[in-house]
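step: validate -> pass
step: tokenize input -> pass
step: predict -> running
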Amino acid sequence: MFQRLRKKWRFVAIALAAATISFIVGTLLPGNQQGSDKPATAAVQNLKQSLTVNRLAKEVGDDRTGFNLDRTIEELLTVLESKEKNLTFVPPEQFQGKTVFEGTIKYSQKVIALTVDDGPWPETTEQMLDIFKQNDIKATFFWIGKSLEASPDIARRVVAEGHAIGNHTWHHPYDPMDAATAASEIDRTAKLIYETTGVKTTYFRPPGGVLTNGLAKYAKEQNYSVVMWSVTSADTDPRAQPEAFVENVLKNAKPGAIVLMHDGGGDRSRTIKALPEMIAGLKQQGYRFVTIPELLEMQGQSAA
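step: predict -> pass
step: emit ->
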């Protein structure tokens, strides 16, 4: 009898949580924003209550049923709170409309910025997030619109765990394009980043580092900081092994360096294998890890 009551309560609690999630998702849809970028504070409170209800359900119920709504609720909560806080990644004024290859900082400041392109990507991004979390590292992720469209939940986890976000176009094009196409590639991605995560960003990385096909020009006109890199892991080389990725980074690291890696666009299992050793080697050299916004903020302070 008691077991039946426990099971009944669990399904009631889950139904309540699910109903609240459905309501909150409705408030996040573009057509339901009613001209405001900020959802109602009550929506955040309702979502927090759903999280409490679901945890209570797990305490009194049998978790073997597989109904675990916590992550979904927390991810949606991230979107709402990001919008309410107006979470933005905006470069310091001197870097707006400029191209950046590395941070120019005092040599005594041994900092390095890890950047990750082409995600969010199933499995790989989550594995990378686990490694970053274990090492208390915040990185900067440059997202492709199509990848974001396919993996919104992973994107919300990236933001929830405190990483910085940049724009990497919608289709990842290399060829020259007209101004309207360049605008669409960047603006469409920016719109989806905001709708999915609540984040606004004016950091941009051109696919392949191509600066002459119209994308970088448009980004600069919109006051984006065009972020390149000074060190590459070369993890897109199909012939290279993880040890080579590690060596590429450790050999070329210097204070203010921006490191290029990838979590999407194909099989990145070699990158995942190399990452822990890469991090350990950089720590052994005395580096601490910063995001691109943090790096440019430090450079701005050094120049002041």
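step: describe -> The CA atoms of residues 10 and 61 lie 5 Å apart.
step: cleanup -> pass
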